[in-house]
Design a protein that fits this description.
The complex is a heterodimer of chains A (120) and B (110). Chain A has 120 residues and is mainly beta. Chain A is built from no helices and 11 strands. Chain B is built from no helices and 9 strands. Chain B has strands at residues 9-12, 18-23, 35-40, 47-50, 64-69, 72-77, 86-93, 99-101, 105-109. Classes of the chains: A mainly beta (120), B mainly beta (110).
C-alpha cells in the first residue's frame, strides 16, 4: 500500500526559506520510472504543480517558480525534500506530495497535505 | 499557464447523474488526451478517479466516467451517492512536463 505524508513548519515568515519533507512507503524511488511530485493549493484557489523528481534524479520544475524551488531525494530514507526560497504571504497554501509512475501524466497517490502559512 | 475552468458547484439528488465540465485551451485539454480527475474530501488525501481522459484506476466505481470534446473535458457521476459529496478537480498535461489544474467543483448531494 502506497502512502505519503508531508511534514514541515506550519508558519514561516516572509523572506524565509520553506523546507518540506515527504516521507513515503509502499514504493521505492530507486525503481525505474517512479517519481514524486509536490503540488500546492492556496485557500480558495486552484491546485498548482510545483516540482517533480524521478527515480534517476531527473528534476522538473514549474517554470513560474523554478528560480525559488529545489527538489531532492534521499532514497535510503524514502524521503523527498522541497525547498522554496523567499516565501511570501501569497505562498500560503496546503502543500501536497504525490506519487507518479513513469510515462504517466497523473498522480495516483497523494498525501493528506500540510498547511503552510506565511505571515510575520 | 492559466488554470482550467470548472463550475464552482454542482448538485444532484441520490440516484441522479451529474456532469462536471473542465474547460481548457488548445494548449492543454485540446492537445492531449491526458486529463485526470481527482476527488477530494477536505482533510484527506486527494483520490485519483479518472486518468487519460476516461480510464478508471482499479477500485474506482464504474459510476464515474470521463470524456472529452475539443477543449472541454467532463466527469460524469451516475447513480449519485451520499459519499460522492466532495470537491472534484480536473488536471491536464500542458506540455513540457507541466500539469495544469482546474479550480475545483464542490459537489453537493441533496
Amino acid at each position: 500500500q502506497i502512502t505519503l505524508k508531508e511534514s514541515g513548519p506550519t508558519l514561516v515568515k516572509p523572506t524565509q526559506t520553506l523546507t518540506l519533507t515527504c516521507t513515503f512507503s509502499g514504493f521505492s524511488l530507486s525503481t525505474s520510472g517512479v517519481g514524486v511530485g509536490w503540488l500546492r493549493q492556496p485557500p480558495g484557489k486552484a491546485l498548482e504543480w510545483l516540482a517533480l523528481i524521478y527515480w534517476d534524479d531527473d528534476k522538473r520544475y514549474n517554470p513560474s517558480l523554478k528560480s525559488r524551488l529545489t527538489i531532492t531525494k534521499d532514497t535510503s530514507k524514502n524521503q523527498v525534500v522541497l525547498t522554496m526560497t523567499n516565501m511570501d504571504p501569497v505562498d500560503t497554501a496546503t502543500y501536497y506530495c504525490a506519487h507518479r509512475r513513469g510515462g504517466d501524466y497523473h498522480y495516483d497517490y497523494w498525501g493528506q497535505g500540510t498547511l503552510v502559512t506565511v505571515s510575520s | 499557464q492559466s488554470a482550467l475552468t470548472q463550475p464552482a458547484s454542482v448538485s444532484g439528488s441520490p440516484g441522479q447523474s451529474i456532469t462536471i465540465s473542465c474547460t481548457g485551451t488548445s494548449s492543454d485539454v485540446g492537445s492531449y488526451n491526458l486529463v485526470s480527475w481527482y476527488q477530494h474530501h477536505p482533510g484527506k488525501a486527494p483520490k485519483l478517479m479518472i486518468y487519460e481522459g476516461s480510464k478508471r484506476p482499479s477500485g474506482v466505481s464504474n459510476r464515474f466516467s470521463g470524456s472529452k470534446s475539443g477543449n472541454t473535458a467532463s466527469l460524469t457521476i451516475s447513480g449519485l451517492q451520499a459519499e460522492d459529496e466532495a470537491d472534484y478537480y480536473c488536471c491536464s498535461y500542458a506540455g513540457g512536463s507541466t500539469l495544469v489544474f482546474g479550480g475545483g467543483t464542490k459537489l453537493t448531494v441533496l
